[in-house]
Structure formats: structure tokens, C-alpha cells
What does this fold into?
Amino acid sequence: MSTTPELWRVSTVEGLFETDLETLKQWIREDCVLPTDKVSKGNLNWIDAGRVPQLKSAFLGETTSHTPKSAIDSFETFEAANYATTTPPESTAKVSAAAPSTNVCQNHPDETPEYVCRTCLAVFCKHCPKFVRERIPMCPLCGDLCRNYREVTEKAAHVELQRSGFGIGDFVRAVRYPLQHKTALFTGALIYAVLLLAGTRGMLAASTVLFGCISHVICNVAWGRFNRSFMPDFSSFNIIDDFVSPLFLGVGILIVSWGPVIALILALMFGVVGNGAIAASNQPAQPSAPDMSVLLDPNADPKRLEEENRKLQQLRPGAQMAREAEKSKEEASDPAGLLTQVLPYMTGTSIGLLLLLFILWGLFYHPMAFAVAGYTQSVASVLNPLVGLDTIRRMGITYFKAFAMVLGVQVVSFVIAAIITIITSPLALPFMGNLVGNFIDATFTFYLNLVIACILGLALFKCADRLDIAVN
It folds into this structure.
């Protein structure tokens, strides 16, 4: 059952207006109504707007959960309020989300469009609107507030892009994305390439810079901030946010995606994995039975008699129980635990299948680990594969499309690296290696990783409603 909205009257220097409570709050937030302006609810007495308890939150700039979408996002839902007393309140109507129907001024087709009415969607140049207090544009046709034409059209295009499916167009957009910020691309690639040439510490710093940029791209694109640069703001550099956090996120990605492969390879290197027969041969030998003839011979050699008595003592039930307890204690203190008990008995075939399974997991989950790190910025979420698997479930076919694109870019990266190595191999220097080839390869690696990050960010952006991402 619907209820009629409360009718409020507003008296300002521009005239007398009528509207509902929520639209009145929106006018207050947009400085169309001042605290000293008079308001009246229904047929009640006039009072200063700043003294009305229901309007105080609006003057403080607060938005409540009861504010309709029309008061928050003008390009999605427009509330056609009754501003003038000559128009009946019943004419209030909602206009569906839409971009302006034209890109030229309503009155001056030759002028550049600057404003669009949020109710009737009429487009105007900078000369057409009526300005309240010399800065608030009002529609000359219906009297509603006007919005910036560029902002409205960009938001409408934003909504249309998000509602469209994920496909080859997004791949092309990802390929072009780093090229939109050529200065940042050149600077980032230069920093990354130079750090790679600076030894182990330089490689660690280079990986941190690269992952920081990847994380920045995924976060911005997933939230719909396509025009922002992928380079972090180093003017406000923070050691925790700009270095330590990306470093730990990168380590978390490595552990959750490729950790099983690394653990199995280390187990092979240190001999934890082997033949069951070899493992069994390393078990301590069972005590042999004593020679009873020696024990019964009164003239037996004392040393031999002592040896046979020791064997007899080892066969006692108490001694066997003590050995079992000692063995259990040693197994409990073994950090490998179950791994050392199971892996030694695995055959070569089973080890190969397990290694293949771990490699497939790393290939499949690695892009999702990047995506989780990018849009959550949480090490705990990265290390929890259930978060990534749940994200894959919500994204559905979109993730598999993104995965195929990422895999294709990685194959291209491998081919480019091989070609660069072959072409620049004559330029290799003694004790220094192929500096030119490494520098060129690092530049392409930086660019292609940004493309991968943009692909993942766009996939998240297209699934924002399913992932509860508040797109800007």
C-alpha cells in the first residue's frame, strides 16, 4: 500500500516552491536552501529551515539510509519534483536512468553542451540555464537542477559498460589501458628494469614495485576508476602501504598458488620423497633371538653369555613397548609429520601425477589470487583459497574468459622474451650478461603485466553486483 509523500513548502529569495522531504534535503545539500530560508510542512507555520530537526542532518551533509536513490545518484533515477506553486504535487514522476538523448544544446545547437537537466534530460550550453546564487544551474524548462553534461554522460556510459557482457572488447580495452598513461608507463618500466639489474635485493624491490602497480590497477579498474594512473602516488610515500603491504600480498599470492609445487620440489630435493623399499630398509632392525645353548652352558664364554642375555632382555614385552613409545615420540617431534610417513612410499607415477595436479592448480588459481589481492588488499583473504574459490563461483563464466585472456597474454610474454633473447644475444657482455636484452624484456614484462591486471580488474568490474563491489 503506497502512501502520499509529505508536502513541504520552501520560501527563498528565488521564490516559493513545493516539494517532498527527501528532495528538500537534497536541495539543502546542494546549497539551494539556506538555514535562514523559511520552510513549512503542509499547512503548518513557517520556520527557519535550520531549526527543523528533520533537516539538520542535511545541513550537516549527512545522508541517511532512507534517502532514495534519486537523491544520491541523479543519472540512475531522477525525481521530477513540483518546484513551483502553479504545478500540482501529483505531477511528481520518476524518470528512468538514461543518457541525454542528444549531444547538442536545446536552444543553441552550435554551442558546446555543458549541462543536462536531471529530470527532463534536456541539454543546454553554458548560457541557457538559470543560475541560483550565480552558481547553481536550474533547467529553464522544468525548473529542476542541472548536472554537468560530461559527468552525466560518463556515468551513463559507465553503467552501460558494466551491464555489457565480458568479451573481446574488454581485452582490447585492457591492451590499450597502459598506453593511456604513457609517462607513467615509461617511468614504471624504467624503474622496474633498472631494479632487476641490481642483484637479488633489486629483484625483490622490482617485484614489489610491479605487484604494487598490478594491485593498483586491479583496485582502480574493479571500482570503475578507469582514468586513474596505475603508478602509486609516491609524493605521499608510506613504507607500510607502498612497500611492506605489496610485498606481503605478493608472498601470499606465491604461497597460495605455487606453494604446493614448491613444497613438493623441496621434498624431492631433500629426499623426503622416495621408494618405499628404501624407506623400509632404513627402519631399525628387529632384535634377533638369543642362542639358548649358550645360555644353558655353564662353561660358556662370559662375553658371549652377556651378549645373549642382552638379546633375551630385548625380547621382553616391556622392552618392546619402550621402543614403540620412543619411536612414536620421534615421529611426533618430526615437523614433516604425515608428509614423511606418506611420501616415502609414493611411486614415481603418483609423484608425477601429484606434481601435475599442483602445477594445474597454480596455473588456474594464480590469476584469481592476484584478483583477490587487488580488490581486498588483505593478506588473510589472499592466503585463504576459499575466498578465491567463492569469487570464482560468483563470477561464473566471466572468470574463465578472463583466465583464457590472461593465459594468452602470458604465452605472448614468453614468446616475446624468447625472441628478445635470441636477437640481443650477440650484445651479451662478460660478467654482466645481456643487459640490453634484459632491459627490453623487463619493459615488455611490465607492460604485459599491466594488461593482465586490467583484464582481471574489468572482470571484477563486470561482476561488481555479484561481488558487492561499490563501483564509483
